[in-house]
Amino acid sequence: MSSQIYSVTGNVVDRNTGQGISNLRVEAWDVRKDNQGSFGSANVDANGHFILCLDLKNLELRRPPDLYFKIYRSAQLLADTEDTVVLKGGEDREVLIQLTIPVAYPEGKDRVNAKQLFTGVDFIQQSDFKGLFTDVKGKAGTRVSFISDMVMNTFNKADIKPIKVTGTRESDVINQPVAGVKEKLEAKKVVVENVLPYDPQINRASFNNITSLPANLKEGEKVNLYEENGKVRYYSIVKQNISTAGLTAIADEHTEQLTKLQNELNVTKENAAQKDAEIIAHRDQLSKMQEELNLAKETAAKKDAGMLEVTRTHNDQLVKMQEQLNAAKDSAAQKDAEFSKLNAALTSMRTDQSNMLTMLKPENLVKLLKGDVLIKGRGIQVPKTQKTKAAVAKKTPPK
Predict the structure, then answer these.
(1) Which among 268, 284, 261 is positioned nearest to 117, based on CA atoms?
(2) Tens of pLDDT along 159-175?
(3) What is the model's pLDDT at position 58?
């Protein structure tokens, strides 16, 4: 099998904003689970785009496999698309992977945003905790489970992360000696307004104390301590009356914060719209490039077809020329045979001519006239009667 490169292109975007996510790694995996490892990986660029190339020859594959994808940030697996995004083998389309990436907050910062804070304030102010407590007290069983699940789901779905504790912690006050607690609070510049006996009752004041109980005490706050047997069993914040000017300042501050948040939201929307326009422009550019690629493929296919036709024509011409060459060779062989015959006849004629010239010499002509020679075949020969007479004359001695 010759080397075959199968390319997979795609984008990894934020599910909420549609913007590309960078600093990620995408791995391609076999849907059929025939292979235990990934086929290959590619890094995501600053726009969330990636190109993943698979060498089918090295992977010993006859055709492109069905793929799903795993997305990593460093060594952390963020998601896999086995149940959401699958690319069929050889499918010619761009992969779109949508992720929900949690926001990474700096360590030690408050994770509660303004919207959640206002929602929590509204929840506390509008809730009838006394009525809820009385109703839950009278109804047992599934109601308790429902309220518990309600609270757990509310906090699980909220984007709230742990907050680092500052100031004086509750554990530094509760069940500690009163004198020691007062010293600690004074050192933290927390003022102890009153030390009261611990006498919890179900009344409006108790519920107000519960709702106002902070997780920790801050500098400048005033508290009431509730004592039993010399130890602090409970404490509450002494609420200060806020003047009209103070309320106006708070309202102005909230208005400023809301204006700032609105401006940030508008900027975010503008950035999102700009990113959407860039994504559309990139998609149009990719579509145009795909059309150009298809046109180039068609042109190459036509050129290949034309070259194939030219090759076939040349082959036919070569076959005809070979046939003509063979016929010329046969004709040349026949002409060589005729030439050999003519050459032999010419040689014979030259021999006859030579004999004839020899016979026509003067001495041979005299002998011919006297009858001493005769012509036989192509030579001159002495007659037999003359040979006999000459032999007898030689044998008979002269008288």
Answers:
(1) 261
(2) 444 444 455 666 778 88
(3) 85
Q: Is the pLDDT of residue 312 over 70?
A: yes
Cα(82)–Cα(368) distance, integer angstroms:
125
38's tokens: 């990934």
Count of Cβ atoms closer than 10 Å to residue 198 Cβ? 13
Calculate mean pLDDT across residues 80-90: 87
Q: What is the pLDDT of residue 209?
A: 55
What are the φ and ψ backbone dihedral angles of 237, each rounded to 5 degrees? -85, 135
Q: For residues 147 and 129, give the distance between their C-alpha atoms in angstroms, rounded to a whole number.
A: 12
pTM: 0.30
Q: Is 225 exposed, middle or buried (0-12, 13-18, 19+ CB in 10 A)?
A: buried
CB 103 within 8 A of CB 161: no
Q: How far is CA 86 from CA 24, 66, 284, in A?
A: 19, 7, 24
Beta-bridged to residue 45, according to DSSP, are none
β partners of residue 99? 14
Tell me whether residue 367 is exposed, middle or buried, using C-beta atoms within 10 angstroms of its C-beta: 0 to 12, 13 to 18, 19 or more. middle
**C-alpha dihedral (99, 50, 80, 92), degrees to nearest 10:** 110
DSSP bridge partners of 14: 99
Instruction: Please state at what angle helix 204-212 crosses helix 129-138, rounded to 10 degrees.
Output: 110
Total H helices, total E strands in the chain: 8, 15
